[in-house]
Amino acid sequence: MILVILTVVVIALLIAVLALYLFVIGVLLNRIANNLDDCLGNVKTIAKHAEVIIPGVEHINRTGGVVAGALPLLYGGAERIAAKLAPPTPAPVNGHTNVPASGRRRSRLMDTVGFPGRQH
């Protein structure tokens, strides 16, 4: 008889714990659903505000592309100016100039915009 009573008590406790667990999960899921609803409203507001600036962003991107295309030309001009201002190179020792192990540096930036780079 005691075993039957203990079994009923354990089953009742198990059902009570499961009911509490499901209640807590339900509360958390409702909170998540409310947060997602708020996020959806914020995203819709941001999208509505962004519609106004999209043409401006496209214009900025086009302008940035033009500037990026001009950078190799500016870089090449700066290299030529720096070469004119650089101190003269020392006379070669033993009839040859020291060259770095990696070889001479050659800029390929001019090639990207259709101008052949200078050969050193």
Give a verbal description of the structure:
The protein has 120 residues and is an all-alpha fold. Helices cover 73% and strands 0% of the residues.
How many helix segments?
Answer: 2
Q: Helical proportion?
A: over 70%
Radius of gyration: 37 Å
Note the gap between the termini: 103 Å
CA-based shape: elongated
Q: Give the averaged pLDDT, no decimals.
A: 83
Q: What is the N-to-C succession of helices and strands?
A: HH
Secondary structure class reads: mainly alpha
Strand content: under 5%
Number of strands: 0
Uncertain spans: none
List keywords for this structure.
mainly alpha, 120 residues, 2 helices
Helices and strands in order:
Layout: H1 2-85, H2 109-112
Brief rundown of the structure:
This protein is mainly alpha-helical and about 120 residues long. Helices cover about 75% and strands about 0% of the residues.
